[in-house]
Every structure is written in structure tokens, then in C-alpha cells.
Amino acid sequence: MIYKTYMLHIGSPHRKAAVSLSALSGEEDRPFGDVREVFPMCSAEIGRPIHPPFDPEVLSALEQIRAVYPAFTLEGIPDARAAVAEILSGSQPFDLTMGGKVRKREMTVPAEGDRPEMRVVVLSPTEPTGPWPGIYHTHGGGMIVGAAEDGLEEFAPLVAEFGAVVVSPDYRLAPENPDPAPVEDCYAGLVWTARNTAELGIDPEHLMIAGMSAGGGLAAGTALLARDRGFPALTHQILMSPMLDDRFITPSSKELDGEGMWDSNDNNVGWTALLGERRGGPDVSAYAAPARATDLSGLPRTFVACGSAETFRDEAIDYAQRLLQAGVSVDLHIWGGGFHGFDLRELEAAIVKASRATRREFLVRALCDKPVQ
């Protein structure tokens, strides 16, 4: 067994430290099993690889979130969806119209073949003076929960302030609709968006894709499909804590057990719901698990961000590194002490403010800079 060690500067608002990240290479893909089978350096006494500490300023928020959000099991997915819906219904709804500056519409992507019709949510400026840059947004939820509206509070202010059109598909969820349904739904919605740019008010030469968590993985997979099928052209991909790898072969995929958000157990449920018995084996497409892609050339300029104390850290770093090696321009940010989703809410913690400001700055540049053709 061969180990490769990478040095990476992990930044936080308070400090920067060089840390060593070990990644397995040269090992045949294997299903998720006992940690000591995949990481023999973890003894029975140690149990799991050690994860970086959580930033003290976000610990109270993490404890509050963990107190209300359910742990996932395959059998309990319907109950988990109901619990998440109840939590969201009890929170103050975000005004996606931004006080009348944004027009919110629901539209339909027509059915085709075995794929049923699909609802999409469209946000656009109230003033019809486009065409505007387009953001195709794929929501998160571990492949098993969520809806098209989720995560749009990140983008509605950009629509109001800078002018953009956001399209968010209500793709089918696993396990009722396993792979390839979710990523093919997302691609179908992207194609529909690109073919209806005139009606939507989108500049056909300025279309990007963005997603958080499972949505980040779907965004990456959809971008691969767009490249390989030759349509449509994308200017940027924004991958926020992306869910990219079903194989559980990185240290960070094993580090969290009952800690943080979306630990290795939740991750196992999400991937198994999507892939079933294929998870971790040789018959998984790179469109479902983009970390499996061997050719990352020809992809759009990329933003990748992740917390240092979350399950997806190492696969995000590896994907960004291989994009760079393939000649793709990449902005990579690893936030020291961040758990999965630490920056989704506006908190006073310095790390949250820094992460949100950095992401917003990239999005504003992506919207305002006309791509050179």
C-alpha cells in the first residue's frame, strides 16, 4: 500500500498552519467497511484518524444544529425528510423576492423518455433589462432530502444587486430514484435552461453552475456531462463542500463518527441510497461520483471551498488539485475549524464572515466579468 503526502496551507481568520494530508493511492476501490480495514495505521486503540479541531466560535452553533437535525439511516429517510421539513417550517422564511426586487417563478422542464417532467424555480430581476448571467443551482441534501428552493437565499441578493437569473431544479431524490436519476435530472434542467435563454433572460454565453454538499457533487457531475456531451458551455462551477467520492478512501471520510455535521455514517447512508450495492465498487460512473473522473480537462473555472473538520475535505482538495493539473483555473479555500455547512447561516464567528465574504466576492466577479470567448 502506497501513501502520498501533500502539504497544504490551511487558512482561518486567526492563523495559518501547514498540515500534512495523507491520501491513499494504488489501492483497488473497496466498499466502506471497518475503519481499520481501510486505514491499517489506525489501531484498535486509536480507532479513527484524528480530525482537526472545530473553531471555538462555531461550536455553540454546531451543538444547536446537531440537537435538532436527525441522524440518517436508510430505513429512516422518510422520517428524516419529515423532520427536516418540520424544522424548516418553524424557521423564519427568507424573502426570495428581496422586497420586490426579484421575480420568483415556477416553471416546468418537459418529460422526455423515462424521465418525468420536473419543476424548476427561477429567480430573475424584476426590471427586464437583461440578458443577465445565468446561475444553474443544484440544491444539497445528501442525495436524499431537499427541494429546489433550498440554498437560494445565497443567490437572491445577487439577483437583486448585480442582475442574474437563477434556475434551480427539483431533481428526483434517492433511494426511490437511484443513480443516474438525480444527475440526469440536473443535466436535463441545465439543457432546458440553455435552450430557453431568451425566455429566461439569460446571456447564453454567460452560464455557470453552483451547488452545496450533494448539490456540489451534482454540479460537478453535471459539468462533466455538459463537457462530454458538448452542450451547454459553462463559464464557472462553484462547488461548496462538494460530495464527490463514494469510496471512503480518504482520511477525512473516516474521521467523524457522531461529531460535526454529515459524519461518515450519514455519508454512508447518502451514497448507499444513491448507488445501492454498487457503492465503492467498480461500476460507478464519474457523473455520479466525480472524484472518479480521470480526465478533468476542459472544465470551467472553478471555486472549491470546504471546512477543515468535515467529511468532504480531502476529496475536495484532491479534486481541486487535479483540476489545476488539468489546466483549469481554481480558487481553493479550506477553512480551519469549519464543520460541514458552518457558513450557511450568518453568524458573528470570524471564520463564517470570512468564508461568506470570500464566496460572495468570487460570485460577484463571476457575474460581472464578461467571459472572453
In short:
The protein has 373 residues and is of the alpha/beta class. It is built from 11 helices and 10 strands. It has an 8-stranded mixed beta sheet with strand order 3-4-6-5-7-8-9-10, with helices on both faces. It has a two-stranded antiparallel sheet with strand order 1-2.
Helix/strand layout:
Layout: E1 2-11, E2 16-25, H1 35-38, H2 59-68, H3 77-89, E3 102-109, E4 118-125, E5 132-138, H4 156-162, E6 165-169, H5 181-195, H6 197-200, E7 202-212, H7 214-229, E8 236-240, H8 252-255, H9 264-275, E9 301-307, H10 313-325, E10 330-335, H11 350-368
Parallel strand pairs: 5-6, 5-7, 7-8, 8-9, 9-10
Antiparallel strand pairs: 1-2, 3-4, 4-6
Describe this structure as you would to a colleague.
- By secondary structure, this protein is of the alpha/beta class.
- It is built from eleven helices and ten strands.
- It has helices at residues 35-38, 59-68, 77-89, 156-162, 181-195, 197-200, 214-229, 252-255, 264-275, 313-325, 350-368; strands spanning 2-11, 16-25, 102-109, 118-125, 132-138, 165-169, 202-212, 236-240, 301-307, 330-335.
- The strands form two sheets. The protein has an eight-stranded mixed sheet with strand order 3-4-6-5-7-8-9-10, with helices on both faces. A two-stranded antiparallel sheet has the order 1-2.
- Strand 7, helix 7 and strand 8 (236-240) form a beta-alpha-beta unit.
- Helix 5 packs across helix 7 (214-229).
- The protein starts with a strand and ends in a 5-residue tail after the last helix.
- Residues 1-46 have low confidence and may be disordered.
